[in-house]
Design a protein that fits this description.
Blueprint (H helix, E strand, L loop, with lengths): L1 E4 L2 H7 L13 H7 L28 H17 L4 E9 L9 E10 L11 E7 L12 H32 L2 H6 L4 E7 L15 H12 L15 E7 L18 H16 L26 E4 L3 H4 L5 E4 L20 H18 L19
Parallel strand pairs: 4-5, 4-6, 6-8
Antiparallel strand pairs: 1-7, 2-3, 3-5
Helix pairs in contact: 4-9, 7-9
The structure holds 2-acetamido-2-deoxy-beta-D-glucopyranose (2 copies) and zinc ion.
Family: Belongs to the peptidase M28 family.
Pfam families: Peptidase_M28
Organism: Lithohypha guttulata
Length: 378
C-alpha cells in the first residue's frame, strides 16, 4: 500500500455511509472466561496449524498461492462447517507478465443467521490480503499480510459457537414474523489476492483482487425486495488488517471520520484488555492512540492506498487498521517468519475476536463453562 492524498470526491463518498449498527460491549467476566490468553499452538511459525502454512511465498497464480488458498478452504471446511465458502476468480494483465493473463483468486467465507436469505443480512467483514510481493525473491510478507490472515482465522473460530448459540436462542424464543424483521448481522471473511504491485504501485498495478471483487459485488443485484440492493451494500463495516504482527508497536491512527465510532470501540476494547492483563505483548504501548479524538476533529487529509479503496469509492464504510509508519522490514526480505512477534499476533487476534463479538452482540451467547486458567509461559 502507499500513502497518498485523498481526493475530495472520495472523501465526500466516504462520508455517505450506512448507519452504524447497534454495538454492545462484552462484560469483564465474559472476556475473562471466553478469551483466555493461551492460543500459542495456532501461531507457531513452524508447526502452527493456522499460521505456518501461510508463511511461504504466495505470488498470485503460482502453485504456492494455490496451496495457501487450499489451506483456507480446508480450515473453514474442517473447523467452521457452518460457513459458506466461495472463490471469486478474475484475470488481469500486469506490467511484468506481457500478454499473459494472471489469475487472481479471492477467498470469501461467510456465515449468516439461518432464517435469513442472503440479501437480508448485513455483514461485519474482516479483510486481509494473502498474496505476497513478487520481489525480493523468496519474500514471505509475514506482516504483509500472512499474520493478519491468521489473526482473522483464529478470531472467527473463537466466536463461531457463540454465533450458533445466539441464533438458536433467537429461533427458539422469537416468533417467525419478528425473526424475519430482526436485524441480525452475519460475519464475513475476505482474503484478497493481488494486493501487491508487480512493478511499482499504480492504480492499475495493485489491489487486483479487491478491484475485481468490488466491481463484481457492485453489479450483482440481490433479488427484488431484498433489504440490500447488492453484496457491496450488505457490507456493514469493512475492517482491513494490514502490516500487523511485528513487535514494533506502531501506532494506528483513526483514518476516516465515518468509521471513527468503530475505531473508538476497538480502541476502548484494546484499553480494557490491556488493563485486565490479557495481552501478552508489550503492555506499555497503545496500538490505537486516537480513542479520544473528537468526531469533528480534522481527520488526516491523507489516506493509505490499500484494498479498501475500491470499496470506499463505492460508499462502503471501512476501518483501516494499518500503522501510519510501516514496520522496519516492510517490503524487505526480513519480513519473514522470525520477524513476527507471536505475542503481538495473538493479542491482535484476541482484540479482533472480542471486537467482532461486541459488533455481533454476542454477550450472553457464550456457553457457561469453567473459567479457563490463564496459561503462564515457563
Ligand atoms: C513455495 O514454497 C516453498 C516453501 O513451502 C518454497 O521453498 C518455494 O521456494 C516456494 N516457491 C516459489 C516459487 O516461491
Ligand atoms: C473459481 O475457480 C475455481 C477453479 O480454479 C472453481 O472451483 C470455482 O468454482 C470458481 N469460482 C466461481 C465463483 O466461479
Ligand atoms: Zn505489501
Amino acid at each position: 500500500m502507499r500513502l497518498c492524498r485523498v481526493t475530495t470526491a472520495l472523501a465526500v463518498l466516504a462520508s455517505t455511509c450506512l448507519k452504524p449498527n447497534a454495538y454492545s460491549t462484552l462484560s469483564d467476566s465474559t472476556i475473562r472466561q471466553r478469551f483466555p490468553r493461551s492460543q500459542s499452538r495456532d501461531f507457531d511459525i513452524h508447526t502452527g496449524p493456522i499460521l505456518a502454512p501461510i508463511l511461504i511465498p504466495r505470488v498470485p497464480g503460482t502453485e504456492n498461492s494455490t496451496k495457501v488458498l487450499d489451506h483456507f478452504v480446508r480450515f473453514f471446511q474442517g473447523e467452521l462447517p457452518e460457513w459458506n465458502i466461495e472463490v471469486q476468480n478474475s484475470t488481469s494483465k500486469t506490467p511484468t507478465h506481457g500478454n499473459e493473463d494472471v489469475p487472481f483468486r479471492n477467498f470469501i467465507a461467510s456465515r449468516r443467521p439461518p432464517w435469513l436469505s442472503d440479501g437480508h443480512v448485513g455483514y461485519l467483514t474482516l479483510v486481509a490480503h494473502y498474496d505476497s510481493k513478487i520481489e525480493p525473491v523468496g519474500f514471505i510478507g509475514a506482516t504483509d499480510s500472512a499474520a493478519p490472515c491468521a489473526m482473522i482465522m483464529s478470531a472467527v473460530r473463537s466466536i463461531d459457537a457463540a454465533m450458533t448459540n445466539k441464533w438458536q436462542k433467537m429461533q427458539e424464543t422469537t416468533d417467525e414474523f419478528e425473526l424475519e424483521d430482526s436485524n441480525a448481522l452475519g460475519l464475513q471473511v475476505l482474503f484478497l489476492d493481488g494486493e501487491e504491485a508487480f512493478h511499482s504501485w499504480t492504480a492499475t498495478d495493485s489491489i487486483y483482487g479487491a478491484r475485481a471483487l468490488a466491481d463484481d459485488w457492485d453489479t450483482a443485484m440481490y433479488p427484488a425486495r431484498s433489504t440490500y440492493k447488492t453484496k457491496l451494500n450488505s457490507i456493514d463495516l469493512f475492517v482491513l488488517l494490514d502490516l500487523l504482527g511485528s513487535g514494533e508497536s506502531l501506532p494506528i491512527p483513526s483514518w476516516m471520520q465515518n468509521t471513527h465510532w468503530a475505531y473508538q470501540h476497538l480502541a476502548k476494547l484494546e484499553h480494557r484488555l490491556r488493563k485486565m492483563g490479557l495481552f501478552k505483548s508489550d503492555n506499555s504501548q497503545t496500538w490505537l492512540p486516537e480513542k479520544d479524538k473528537k468526531n469533528d476533529a480534522i481527520f488526516q487529509q491523507t489516506m493509505m492506498q490499500d484494498d479498501h479503496i475500491p470499496f470506499v469509492a463505492r460508499g462502503v464504510p471501512a476501518l483501516h487498521l494499518i500503522p501510519s509508519r510501516f514496520p522496519s522490514q516492510w517490503h524487505r526480505i526480513g519480513d519473514n517468519a522470525e520477524y513476527l512477534d507471536i505475542p503481538t499476533v495473538e493479542d491482535w487476534s484476541l482484540l479482533t475476536a472480542a471486537f467482532a463479538a461486541e459488533y455481533l452482540e454476542l454477550e450472553g451467547s457464550f456457553e457457561q463453562a469453567p473459567v479457563v486458567k490463564r496459561h503462564e509461559e515457563l
